[in-house]
Amino acid sequence: MSKCICNVVLNPFTNDSRVLKTSMSLAKAGHSVTVVAMHEPGLPEVEELQGIRVLRIRIRTRALPRNPLTRMLSFAEFMLRALPKVTRANVLHCNDLGALVMGNVWKAIAFRQVRLVYDSHEFAMNDSAGETALRMWLKRRLEQLCIHAANRVICVSPSIVRAYHAIHRIPRPTLVLNCPPSQDVVRSDLIRTTLGLREDQRIFLYQGRLTSGRGIELLMDSFQARQADQDVIVFMGNGPITQVVSERAATCPRIRILPAVPPQELLRWTASADYGVCFIEDSCLSYRYCLPNKLFEYMMAGIPVLASNTIDVRRLVEKEGIGVVAKENSVAGFDEALDRLLQTDPSKWRENARRASTTYCWEQQEARLMSAYEGL
Question: What percent of the chain has pLDDT over 90?
């Protein structure tokens, strides 16, 4: 039976590949899907994106100086302004905890028969480094209060599935990995020619959001300390520390930076690297339990992986034989893993990555998403 689904996300929906993939899959299944997102200057309030209707809610309080109070005001304003847009939906697909809280409020205020799907992209109870015990306890209580109103819960890694099942005492969530759609990706020299790199230089690619906690500072320290310029790390993305990376790149030829590209173009760039770097710091439980989409993108592009020693990342890389896992998440650990990587013929890893990509693709995850929607 066709449903009217609002896919709610608290970002401007410009490079959110997961929300786009879930929306397209649900639309392909015959549902009417609208993405409700936050507006930012320069973006249209209403648009069609790959056949998906997008509504961006303009929030006036976002212009205020950022502090806890103004963030709460912006949250409340979004919730109120989005309410008329979601009242016709019979399913609210809530991406992350903030959207789940809104879904609970909307359901209580306006339409009790709406069904809630909670798609948790992180381990919400501890999703950033340095959180106090009180803050983590408050988020745990908030999530516990709201999650029981959800008719379905979806998580992005096996560790988060197990943790939510045990902590919240809910039926086992559906695991939907953040994999790219299956595609034949042809290797090229796109990065090399764009940055003017030599043929003998090896390209290590970090793609994704440039923010603290994802090993970026550690990676820059490692490559800056190297004497030869044969190994180059390229950061492709944007985020809060883009300027920091740009400044380091300006002073070190072994560090380069490229802007983020649209999801539909990403794998062309990925396949032009020699190795993919997925070096997440074990600085909070969300990072410890994560399975980043970049890992699956490297796999789809057929490039070997240099990975951090976190639970699910380690298990996947070692199980599929697609690269090297560091013994410890530090500059010394990365350097040792890099040396091991360069001493091994990468052809077997490339072969394993291409083989594994037929399993770790969105088409396989789409079936899990559809099973979660059965009976709603």
Answer: 78
